[in-house]
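Please go through the sequence and fold tokens given here and tell me how the chain folds. Record follows.
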Amino acid sequence: MTSQQVLPRDRLIGAIHCELADAIREQFLHRTDRRFLIDWQAAYTITLKGNETGALAADANKIPIPFDRGASSVLISAGADVKGTANRTAVLKFSLNVSDIDLHAAPCAETYATGTHPFLRGNIGFGQWLNEALDTSISDGFIASHPDRLTSVGHTFQFVVLATAGVNPTFTIAPRPITINPSVGVSREEDNSVDVVLAKKSSGGSGTTTVSKVKTPEQVRKVEQYRRENEDARQTIAQADAYFDTADGRRLAQLQAQIKGKEAAITSLGVALPSGLAAPNNLEVPNDLAAPLAEKARREFSELQGLENQFATTGGAELERKQRERTTGENTIAENQGRIQAIESNPKGVRVTRAPAPALPPSENTNIATTQLQLTLERVIGNKFSGF
């Protein structure tokens, strides 16, 4: 191949990559109907062929060139008296995700290398091809409305890198064929190609299928009902607690506690409490109960009656209602939580979930590989009929 000093291959490859990135970037910036390309991948294969005959053979091109910005000529070889023929071929493959292209990057200048190699110019024509390829594909109404049906686009570009020695020395990338200005001395010609493919991402395998148990619509309805009932019960409990925290609520709760204390004191003496408001003398005291204890039981019962009367006439019924409501709410929540848990632990429905397989990297994309193979076969067939 041309020596790395004369034509750095990283500069040539960088110029090709930059032109392709520009062509793809243009689709996003100027064509809103091309946004589907963001999920695509790209690959390109560069085939570099160095063909030298006559006075300039491969080994003659090894001297580094002093690329002085003010230079008016480029020295290609060590001398013009070197005779022979040299053919070299190199194949380089690259791939990328379209989403990795920086949409905000500045376009490539016509002169890609402005530092160590200021003489690399020209382009291959990726932008024009990509516009024409996508315009042709999307002109179909069905594809335009279903761009996901478009699988890939590909093309083989032939290009030359011309090394000229003259007043304005350059290395020019140009499509093949090219008409060379006869007034410019051509020291070297390289016949090369680039296979470019843009394709949808492909996945490895058929993905995964998951079968899970889920609630039936009836179970869902019941769970929602139980949760609504629980929410109502919580509000009832909150209202009861708010009442208990009022002055009346605290006073009545204190009376209620005193009543329960008196009842406990009487029953601890072995005396049964009568129902209703009976007179103290009507308290049935066991005959074998000692007189002092019997008197104490009647006194406690009289005080109990006073407390009960005060409780009943100052809102005791409201306190007891709030207490019953709170107890009912707590029971409702406990029962419904059990019902919900039973449904959640034993759903009667089935759900089938299909997850697509993860996308393969560009180097393993089957859509790209298939299109690359087709381009290769087309080129082989074309060369066969052309006599090569």
Summary: The first helix runs from residue 9 to 30. The radius of gyration is 47 Å. Helices lie at 9-30, 126-138, 141-145, 217-244, 247-268, 291-313, 316-345, 366-386.
